[in-house]
Amino acid sequence: MLDDDQLATRNAELRGTLDNLMRELKDRTDGLRDAQAAIAAMSGVASSPDGNVVVTVDSTGVLDKLELGPRAFERVTPEQLAQTITQVTRRAAMNVRDQVTERMAPLTSEEGVVDLPDIVPGAPSIKDIFRVEQRPEPAAPPPPSDEDFGSSVLRKESRPVQRAVSSSSDDEDFGGDSIMGKGNRW
Question: Which of 5, 24, 120, 122 is most buried (CB neighbours < 10 A)?
Fold first, then answer.
């Protein structure tokens, strides 16, 4: 059993640890509020190698601005231009994601931080509140080829055109004689 002096010493240690924990929590909460404000103002920008596509995304990676240069439509198919826009948008989103990660790094560091379960066994961890989840980047599609000019710009595959077959019942309003079949005999 502990005597009064030992209890007082233990109580003072515990109080000091809790004070440090509360100070750390307040500092991190203030830092998180400041980081959120800074992150909200961030944007990511990327451009295609030729500079004809410039994309700006907001702090969440959502497209904010798309600029197409005057030569963006020259010598490319719509599919190639779409792929280029997609790739540049992904790079802009990665750019802003890197900025966010860098800004949040001091807040997500667990170095030297006392956590509530260290003091009270079974208590929830404060570190989990500030943990930032990292998602893997989806694989980018292959870059568009400058050599893909062998097919139609509007359609990659050629499909036969299907025409409606008329029956005599369709021509009943015209006495069984369609005006379409008259040719030049009007």
Answer: 24
**Cβ 54 vs Cβ 88: under 8 Å:** yes
Entry pTM: 0.52
Closest of 115, 152, 148, 141 to residue 130, by C-alpha: 115
Do 87 and 70 touch, CB atoms closer than 8 A? no
**Contacts of 146 by beta carbon, 8 Å cutoff, 6+ apart:** 75, 76
Q: How confident is the model at residue 155 (pLDDT cuts 50, 70, 90)?
A: very low
Q: Cα–Cα distance between 59 and 50 in angstroms, integer?
A: 25
DSSP label at residue 107: H
Higher-pLDDT residue of 84 and 104 is 84
Task: Give the span between the Cα atoms of 26 and 58, in whole angstroms.
Answer: 28
Residue 148 belongs to what H/E stretch? Answer: none
Residue pointed to by tokens 């990665």: 94
97 CB contacts (<8 Å, ≥6 apart)? 44, 61
Report d(CA 80, CA 150) in Å as an integer: 13
CB 28 within 8 A of CB 130: yes
104: which residues sit within 8 A by CB, 6+ positions away? Answer: 35, 39, 132
Residue 115, pLDDT > 90, answer no
